[in-house]
Amino acid sequence: MNLELTNLNAVVCGSTQGIGLATAEVLAKLGANIYLLARNETKLKQISQRLDNTKGQVHNYLCIDFQNSGRLEQEVKKIKSPTKNIILIGMMGSGKSTTAKKIAEQTFLTHLDTDELISASHQKSIQDIFDAFGEKQFRDMEHKVAKNLPKENHVISTGGGMPCYHENMDV
């Protein structure tokens, strides 16, 4: 894969372990500007320092407890207003949609949620889509949405599994 993401701002929720950490590591290797979000500041600092050595850029981290929306708003203001998309990737329930909405408000960008787009286009909840069509067909729908997302001036929250299937990270 010859992918270069030097113009991408990526906010990775739950970035100190599991798929969040793995996603942050891949995005760093591809040159993205990463904002790491999690509750453990010690781990965030260690991971940020390790990722800083990946491509020479500095990665930012925000120690956030999503229960404290006032603090979240203060921290989101620190993220520079981009021209490229800000894409939030993380586990289900890690705060991607909540964070994306706050970032969009503060940066005056439009928020898109890939699960909401799929749900609206099929007039069913994500769970109903899974039940009716199965995971493979849902992942195909998700990939189609990913391919058709705008490339600039949006804050996009993804479904938890989106980075794991097809070549969604390439689009």
Note down, in words, how this protein is organized.
The structure is a single chain. This protein has 171 residues and is of the alpha/beta class. It has helices at residues 18-29, 41-55, 69-76, 96-107, 114-122, 126-133, 135-147, and strands spanning 9-13, 33-38, 60-63, 86-89, 110-113, 154-157. Strands 3-2-1-4-6-5 form a six-stranded parallel sheet, sandwiched between helices. α1 (18-29) runs parallel beside α2 (41-55), α5 (114-122) packs across α7 and α6 (126-133) crosses α7 (135-147). The radius of gyration is 15 Å and the shape is globular.
List keywords for this structure.
171 residues; alpha/beta; 6-stranded parallel β-sheet; 6 strands; 16% strand
Q: How far is the first residue's CA from the last residue's CA?
A: 12 Å
The largest sheet is: 6 strands, parallel
Order of helices and strands: EHEHEHEHEHHHE
Nearest-angstrom radius of gyration? 15 Å
The shape is: globular
Helix proportion range: 40-55%
* Count of DSSP-assigned helices: 7
| β-sheet strand percentage | 15-25%
Structural class: alpha/beta
| Total number of beta strands | 6
